[in-house]
Amino acid sequence: MVKCASHLVIGMKGVFKLATQNTNSFSVQKMIQEKKKKKSAGGITEKIMPYILFLTAAVSVLTTIGIVLTLIFETFLFFDAVSIKEFFTGKVWYPFSETNGSFGILPLIMGTLKVTVIAAIVAVPIGLASAIYLSEYATDRARRIIKPILEVLAGIPTIVYGFFALTFVTPILRDIIPSLEIFNALSPGIVIGIMITPMIASLSEDAMTSVPNAMREGALALGATKFEVAIKVVLPAAISGIVASIVLGISRAIGETMIVAVAGGSTPNLEWNITGSIQTMTAYIVQVSQGDVGYGTTIYYSIYAVGMTLFVFTLVMNLLAQYITRRFREEY
Amino acid sequence: METSTAAANIVNTEEKQIVYKTSDLDLWYGDNQALKKINLDIMENEVTAIIGPSGCGKSTYIKTLNRMIELVPGVRTSGEILYRGKNILDKSYQVEELRTKVGMVFQKPNPFPKSIYENVAYGPKIHGIRDKKILDQIVEKSLRGAAIWDEVKDRLTQNAYGLSGGQQQRLCIARCLAIEPDVILMDEPTSALDPISTLKVEELVQELKKDFSIIIVTHNMQQAARISKKTAFFLNGEVIEFSETNKIFSTPADKRTEDYITGRFG
């Protein structure tokens, strides 16, 4: 067999037929026909495979529809007890009162926004700068080492980040800002920023790397410096991918739960202050799910209403990311 | 009468100066020597063509003239290239400075994914020219210079990628003209274009040589014969022959040049 293979290789140079005749003459066509016969009759696999694949694809779609329907249904039950107007305009969130709780979601939204904005302030500059370094300056070697490390950061469980915020970042911040409370918006905001940085860096780097080299050369040939090329050619050309990565990162910050539940506290408030304890929408849901709230109570239904609001927030962000990717794509 | 024209000729040749003086240039990609002892004097305000079969080093050479070759990892050079008397291979020579004086047009049109206007204004802008009125003038002048103004004047704000390949290439020439370079390097500028666009670019080159020194790499010998004053024939990283274009194409001094231009190889 080895012998015949080596013959074949030699035979490639124009005497293919000759070489095959010299060995134990066999026909590839004949062998293919025989193998075909052995295969299951009628190509049943070919026929049923599409259906099986469709079913598996349908699972995730159906799950999503199921979740959304549950959310909507239970949210309606909540709005039987609390008016929509009160929910969206009320300035106090205090559901645990025995007689009449206050269900104004604004304080929770405020908590989420504070954390998200801080995270974005941390993640966008660092993420973009890393992306520019990786795509424009790093040698292949440096890129091969740094990119996997960035991706490891993205794989750390968020509960670890939560304790990192509470037991490491908060004490350091308290040394700098003495008025900072143990639970606050700043520390989890920064840590969420650290968490989404690799995502923004990695996706932006992909977008920038896919800008053709011809474009860089065009600018360099005009006497542009490397930094000018990065900022004025590559960045604008990759802007749709970059903005999409930022929006996706922010969307993750909005939905982030463990870090804020661990390090953010549980005091819903509508203040602009970032040094005090807060509660985000996600952290509220955690708080209620862990407590012993009776099924069918208003508090029970309130987590669905909050969940629905959260879902709309992240959905809008994701749709925005998709829209931006399509709308601002610079064709090249 | 005759003496006066002769005198004028002498004055003319005396006025023309050497733009690029290449002496004993060697270039390696890693261990692979791509250019061997290149010696070439390129004169200003004329078209110099570089011909030769694929892989002969002609693109490598032209990219060395504005040091774009440095983008290839592992490139080493020795020898010198004097541009207007200064060695550009010297580490102290500012490469951005060089490329501001020496424009380049590439094989494939490579406009930026921006508007036509922004493409042309890009060069002046990065070099600090911000005045809108001046930029407007530069853009019009450059587009006129590249013989594309009439085709695009009504759609300056549209994306450059809406133009045809030939128009894109002339836009790239306009982009290059916008910083008023001294030399324009053209690396097979028509190889991706159709015959009509090619003709337009060739006509343009004839116009441009009045104001600029042009060095053009081409694999099209007819093109070299049509547009250039002098031609260098490269083979395996060496300059086999360098002389007046009509001499090279009528009575080549070297047997290999003759074989190449008569189509016996390459």
Mind explaining what this structure looks like?
The complex is a heterodimer of chains A (about 325) and B (about 270). In chain A, helix 10 crosses helix 11 (about 225-235). Chain A has helices at about 1-10, 15-20, 30-40, 45-80, 85-90, 105-135, 140-155, 160-175, 185-210, 215-220, 225-235, 240-255, 260-265, 280-290, 300-325; strands at about 95, 100-105. Chain A is built from 15 helices and two strands. In chain A, strand 1 (about 95) and strand 2 (about 100-105) form a beta hairpin. The radius of gyration of chain A is 29 Å and the shape is globular. In chain A, about 35% of the residues are buried. Chain A has about 325 residues and is an all-alpha fold. Chain A folds into three domains: about 1-30, no CATH class; about 40-80; about 100-325, MetI-like fold (Orthogonal Bundle). Residues about 1-10 of chain A have low confidence and may be disordered. Chain A starts with a helix and ends in a 5-residue tail after the last helix. Chain B has about 270 residues and is an alpha/beta fold. Chain B has one domain (about 45-65, about 95-260): Rossmann fold. Chain B has helices spanning about 1-15, 60-65, 95-100, 115-125, 130-145, 150, 165-175, 195-210, 220-225, 245-250, 255-260, and strands spanning about 20-30, 30-45, 45-50, 75-85, 85, 100-105, 185, 215, 230-235, 240-245. In chain B, strand 9 (about 230-235) and strand 10 (about 240-245) form a beta hairpin.
Q: Using CB atoms under 8 Å apart, which protein chain pair has the greatest interface?
A: A-B, 20 and 27 residues
Give the CATH H-level superfamily of chain B.
P-loop containing nucleotide triphosphate hydrolases
- Described by the principal axes of the CA atoms, the overall outline of chain A is globular
How many DSSP helices of chain A? Answer: 15
Provide the gyration radius of chain B in Å: 19 Å
What does the oligomeric state look like here? heterodimer
The residue fraction in helices of chain A comes out at over 70%
Main sheet strand line-up of chain A: 1-2
Element string of chain B (H = helix, E = strand): HEEEHEEHEHHHHEHEHEEHH
| CATH evolutionary superfamily of the largest domain in chain A | MetI-like
Number of domains of chain B: 1
Main structural class of chain B: alpha/beta
Instruction: Return Rg of chain A in Å.
Output: 29 Å
The helix content of chain B, as a percent range, equals 25-40%
Alpha-beta content class of chain A: mainly alpha
CATH topology of chain B: Rossmann fold
- Report the CATH architecture of the largest domain in chain A: Orthogonal Bundle
Biggest pleated sheet of chain B: 6 strands, mixed
Would you tell me which CATH topology of the largest domain in chain A applies?
A: MetI-like fold
